[in-house]
Specification:
Number of domains: 2
CATH architecture of the largest domain: 3-Layer(aba) Sandwich
Helix content: 25-40%
Distance between the termini: 15 Å
Order of helices and strands: EHEHEHEEEHEHEHEHHE
Largest sheet: 10 strands, mixed
CATH class of the largest domain: Alpha Beta
Structural class: alpha/beta
CATH topology of the largest domain: Rossmann fold
Radius of gyration: 18 Å
Number of strands: 10
CATH superfamily of the largest domain: HUPs
Strand content: 15-25%
Amino acid sequence: MAFRSILCVVQGGAASNAAVTQAALLAGPQTELSFLAVVGGEHDGQESAADDGSVRRSLEQAEALAAERGVPASARIVRGANPSRLVLDASADADLLVVGGPDDPRPGDVVLGSAASSAVHAAELPVLVARRPPEGRHFPREILVATDGSADSRRGVQLACRIAGAHESRIALVHITDGSSQPHRTLVEDVVAVRHEVGFEAATIEEFGNPAEQVAEVARRERVSLLVVGSRGLGGARRLGSVGERLAHEARCSVLVARPS
């Protein structure tokens, strides 16, 4: 069991389907899996009833999918004028927050396009931005971890090992250097950590250039189903510029931002 408690935001559509599926895959029989649908504002009349009916159907489908995988789940609807705040409050006691992301993100975007996924910027726990895996790949069997030797990236390595241990995943480590860091030493230390945690040798990849661009390119080239990146958990505008935050928005695979839980 990689996570004790998972909160998955259900919004409807393909992105939400990926979030629901991957949340259920990461959950074990003992995991507390919760599905949350957020409805903004207060509405009256037939429009509200129709919207709530659609939301309930989405939640029922999410619960059914989890049940098919033998994972018990709960579901609820919350309503308010600040959906992102509602998501953050609901995830306060979870080990992982799962939201859906677009399969074809646009470079330079800093908002994923929905109130729920914008909570990625303010959540103080690991966040998975779920996308469909590449054709022929199965989540979370192929994991790429971005590492630079920092405590933040080490957290990502540890989290990837927990997932690999539960799902027999393969792990590759990627280090991007600008000429001032020591990729060999960093990779050796993380290879040792992976071997200690899961008992196998991780593949290693070294590249030169812009970290966010090169990590995204390696993830695309290697056709991984999950990219794990560390994050300092900084608030406000500083967080938007971090490599982990940028990759959460721009990578074409699922991205797990590994923050302290």
